[in-house]
Amino acid sequence: MSADKPGEQQPLDAEIVETPGPPPAALPEPDYSDNGAPSFDFVRDRIEKRYTTSVGAQEIAGIGGPEDLQSLDKKIADRKEAAKDKLAEIRRAMGKE
């Protein structure tokens, strides 16, 4: 095996130069301490998340004030009355009344 043959490539002697990468990212503080107690930030974030979720659910449901609650109570009472009337109608149709 001679390296003098035409068309045969010679291996290159190269030096590997390592480039420094980006500095390591700072790790966030853990949510719990070594003894298992949650951090203040963790607890605050959980409370804020629950609060905003409940506010959003109220907005979606349309429950914003006492007027809305009264109208919902009326709708529930009307639905119960309609169900009672329907049950009485079914019983009459079956001849049980």
UniProtKB/TrEMBL annotation:
Residues 1-38 are annotated as: Disordered. This is PspA domain-containing protein. It comes from Amycolatopsis albidoflavus.
